[in-house]
Design brief:
The protein is mainly alpha-helical. The N and C termini lie far apart (about 30 Å). Strand 1 (about 90) and strand 2 form a beta hairpin. Helix 3 (about 30-45) packs across helix 5 and helix 4 (about 50-60) packs antiparallel against helix 5 (about 65-80). The protein has helices at about 5-10, 20-25, 30-45, 50-60, 65-80; strands at about 90, 95. It has a two-stranded antiparallel sheet. It has one domain. Helix content is about 60%, strand content about 5%. It is globular, with a radius of gyration of 12 Å.
C-alpha cells in the first residue's frame, strides 16, 4: 500500500487536508518552517515518524538533514506529550489545535 493510500485511509481524503500542508508537500521546496508544519500536522494526527518521514521525503524531496529535524521534533513532542499544544497544528477530526 502506498503512503498516500495509507494516510488517506487513516486521516481522510487528501482533499480535506489543509491547503498549506498540501502546498508544503507538493509544490514548495522544503524549508525549516514548512517541515515543522508538516511534522506538527502528522504528529498531531498520530502518524508515526517512519510513515511521516518517508511520505515527506517522497513528496517534498526532503534531504536527510531535513528528516533529522523532523525526527528531532517528533522526539521532543513525544517527550513533552503531557504539555498540551506545544505547536499549533490541524487535527483532521477537530480542526485547528
Amino acid at each position: 500500500m502506498s503512503h498516500l493510500s495509507y494516510l488517506e485511509g487513516t486521516l481522510d481524503s487528501v482533499h480535506n487536508w489543509p491547503q498549506d500542508i498540501l502546498r508544503y508537500l507538493f509544490t514548495l521546496p522544503p524549508t525549516y518552517r514548512s517541515l515543522r508544519e508538516l511534522s506538527a500536522f502528522f504528529f498531531g494526527n498520530r502518524i508515526t515518524f517512519t510513515t511521516a518521514s518517508e511520505f515527506i521525503a517522497e513528496c517534498a524531496h526532503a534531504s536527510q538533514d531535513d528528516l533529522d529535524n523532523i525526527e528531532f521534533s517528533y522526539a521532543f513532542w513525544s517527550w513533552e506529550r503531557a504539555t498540551p499544544h506545544l505547536y499549533e497544528y490541524y487535527d483532521i477530526s477537530r480542526g485547528q489545535v
